[in-house]
Amino acid sequence: MTTDNMMALQSLMANSSDTDVLREMIEFAAGRLMDLEVEGLVGAGHGERSPDRINQRNGYRDRTWQTRAGTVELKIPKLRKGSYFPGFLEPRRTAEKALTAVIQEAYIQGVSTRSVDDLVQAMGMSGISKSQVSRLCGEIDEKVHSFLNRPLEGDWPYLWLDATYVKVREAGRIVSVAVTVAVAVNDQGRREVLGMAIGPSEAETFWTEFLRSLARRGLRGVQLVISDDHKGLKAAATRILGATSQRCRVHFMRTLLAHAGKQGRRVVHAFVATAFAQEDASSASAQWRQVADQLRPKVPKLAAIMDESEHDVLAYMAFPAAHRTKLHSTNPLERLHGEIKRRTNVVGIFPNQQAITRLVGAILLEQNDEWAVQRARYMTLESIAPVSETEPEKLPAVAD
Fold first, then answer.
1. Fewer CB within 10 Å of terminal CB in the chain, N or C?
2. pTM score, two decimals?
3. How do residues 228-269 score in pLDDT, each as one tens digit?
């Protein structure tokens, strides 16, 4: 440690009360550790001229760090190229604590499965009290509630919605509920998790209330909603957001090919893919109808499905070519849903819906933090600008 750093630490200790010394020492040490880590990534010290420099600092990002000594305010350095996230923050910590809290709650309420009971014993948590669990749940619930109810600012041209199902005990019965996650890209090309909702089904009333809750928090400027085929969602998106609906192309193709027969799937897939390969919306629509007409004499069922689904499946073609690979399906959510399923499968059956919100909300919060520190935008400023300023039907056709 340099003489200047040592003097700063001594001054900090001399001017602080006993109750604050430990917390401020942690803050000081964390700041110094981050400086050293970034110095290694940059190839030079702060403000130092060096021929070995390979990167540059680009300001700081504020973040709180919950420690046993209290809340520590950190300033995490940002880099011009790439991203930096301090290893000591443990990105998965909140979700792991949430998983522990849910398992403990299920155990003490006597509604856990045998696998959860075994896990509790293996983790040495059998001696936990209700008050201990309550404190842990309360701490996590506060963070998750703040995150899921934060105000939404700016325009959000693209919104992805997808649901996964989990089991929960309600009134002595085990029921399956839909956990829907909303992810969007804002007018700066940044991707964020906007929220989640739990419902008994994905009926129009469910979608209406969920989208209204997002609108109340400030969601606006949505031009395209990407989801699976939900009539209720399409109606709600049009009425509440005034947005176009994009049916997930991947799910559509699975449905279509299920009617093609085992021998015809490869041929039908190749035919339909020619529409997706077109450079603009009008060409894609013309090719789509041509393929449907070719299939109609021998496979009228497939042609009818294509006739009915044309506008929903090809809606993304009216948007910039640079965005289309991310707009035609809900695949951008697959990794996130995979993580949700991995964690929820450990629990098996949730004791209540609040426990679902606690665990899934913590996973979403951590994912949002990871996206926030990524240097690269999900969509570039140059490509997102016309979408933020112009209605999609007024966009010129853009070649790939």
1. N
2. 0.71
3. 988 888 889 999 999 999 999 999 999 999 888 888 889 999
Residues 6+ apart with CB under 8 A from 348: 112, 113, 115, 116, 167
The structure tokens listed for 63 are: 């973040």
Q: Which sign does the torsion angle of CA 219, 223, 226, 227 carry?
A: positive
Q: Which residues of 222-261 are buried (b: 16+ CB within 10 A; e: fewer)?
A: bbbbbbbebeebbebbeebbebbbbbbbebbbeebbeebe
Dig out the tokens for 111 from the structure: 């509604």
Lookup: tokens for 382: 């140059």
Distance between CA atoms of 43 and 260, rounded to whole angstroms? 58
Residue 266 CB neighbours (<10 A):
11
Estimate to the nearest angstrom the gap between the alpha carbon of 151 and the chain centroid: 16
Q: At residue 201, does pLDDT exceed 90?
A: no
Phi and psi at residue 41, to the nearest 5°:
-75, -35
Instruction: Read off the tokens for 234.
Output: 């399409």
Contact 208, 220 (CB under 8 A): no
Mean pLDDT, rounded, of the chain: 83
User: How confident is the model over 179-191, as pLDDT tens digits?
Assistant: 999 999 999 999 9
